[in-house]
Amino acid sequence: MAGLKLVYAILLSLLVVSPIATTALTCGDVSSKMAACVRYLQNGGTVPVLCCNGVRGLNGIARTTPDRQTACRCLQNAARSIPNIKPPLAESLPGKCGVNIPYKISTSTNCNSVK
User: Fold this and answer.
1) How is domain 25-114 classified at the CATH fold level?
2) Contacts of residue 46, Cβ cutoff 8 Å, sequence gap at least 6
3) Domain residue ranges in the chain
4) Mean pLDDT across the chain, nearest whole number?
């Protein structure tokens, strides 16, 4: 009986500690990571440290193909809806932050082809 109680205790602790499902990346996640970059993307200048932290953070959480495709679409939608974003600044941002991403940051990128 004591052995059975131990098994139940272990199973219960695994259920509490282990996530049941992973959460998919959302545009809200992308927006919160990239918010510190908007002024730079509009005006240029020095890339803010918080912006690069956001770029690295977004790269860190967009690990699966669906997450990277979502991030791509969210970035495209943001670029279309935020006035005065300068495309060359957006394209060069990952490199300026020391992040290598496998696709071009552009409104013309086919996000379905992002792997």
Assistant:
1) Hydrophobic Seed Protein (1.10.110)
2) 40
3) 25-114
4) 83
Q: Distance between CA 44 and CA 37 in Å, rounded? A: 10
Choose among 67, 83, 84: nearest CA to 33: 67
Residue 3: helix, strand or coil by DSSP?
helix
Reported as a single tens digit per residue, the pLDDT across 103-115 is 888 889 999 999 8
Instruction: At 41, list the tokens.
Output: 């993307």
pLDDT at 41: 96
Q: From CA 9, how far away is CA 2, in angstroms rounded?
A: 11
User: How far apart (Å, rounded) are the C-alpha atoms in residues 42 and 18?
Assistant: 42
CB-based contact 25:70 (threshold 8 Å): yes
Distance separating alpha carbons of residues 52 and 112, to the nearest angstrom: 25
Tokens of 83: 């006035």
